[in-house]
Specification:
Blueprint (H helix, E strand, L loop, with lengths): L8 H5 L5 E4 L4 E4 L10 H5 L19 E6 L3 E7 L5 E7 L19 H4 L29
Antiparallel strand pairs: 1-2, 3-4, 4-5
The structure holds iron/sulfur cluster (SF4) (2 copies).
Length: 144
């Protein structure tokens, strides 16, 4: 919490709306950890690398701490095990320049038909396909 500047970025980003600012301390905290999707969006989005998380067991051992250091094109992860050993690794986070992808807020609102359809927002365009495959109905045709 010492690193947190209360910038609200994690509050804005969290898809589960569980990152809040403590009004007394002016610092962020997770109000409902059991509802966390563990999507790491708050971890990766925090400009202060202030979110200290438990990583997935497939890349970090039990009882460790994971923190990140974000650059424009990559994230460096620092894993500190409960035994004190430290491992660091880096992976690229994007292949396009920052701000080169239009915000969804700039998109036109969906038609009423689209809003009631089965497709998610921006499908199929964001999947880079012309159309999604149709799934045949499993319901058996009525017999006469
Ligand atoms: S945890 Fe990071 S992103 Fe969230 S309010 Fe604090 S400094 Fe901002
Ligand atoms: S990791 Fe949890 S708290 Fe962080 S943005 Fe994702 S759902 Fe929200």
């Amino acid at each position: 919490m010492d690193k947190c500047k209360g910038c609200m970025e994690c509050v804005r980003l969290c898809p589960s709306d569980i990152m809040h600012i403590d009004p007394r301390l002016g610092k962020a905290f997770n109000i409902e950890p059991s509802m966390c999707w563990e999507c790491f969006t708050c971890v990766k989005g925090c400009p202060e690398a202030a979110v200290d998380v438990r990583g997935y067991a497939d890349f970090a051992p039990f009882g460790h701490h994971v923190t990140q250091q974000r650059a424009a094109d990559r994230i460096a992860w620092r894993i500190e095990s409960r035994g004190g050993s430290v491992r660091e690794f880096v992976f690229p986070i994007r292949t396009t320049p920052w701000d080169s992808i239009a915000s969804p807020a700039t998109a036109p609102p969906p038609t009423t038909e689209a809003a009631h359809g089965e497709l998610l927002s921006f499908e199929p365009d964001y999947l880079a396909v012309e159309a999604l495959p149709t799934i045949p109905s499993k319901r058996a045709a009525p017999t006469s």
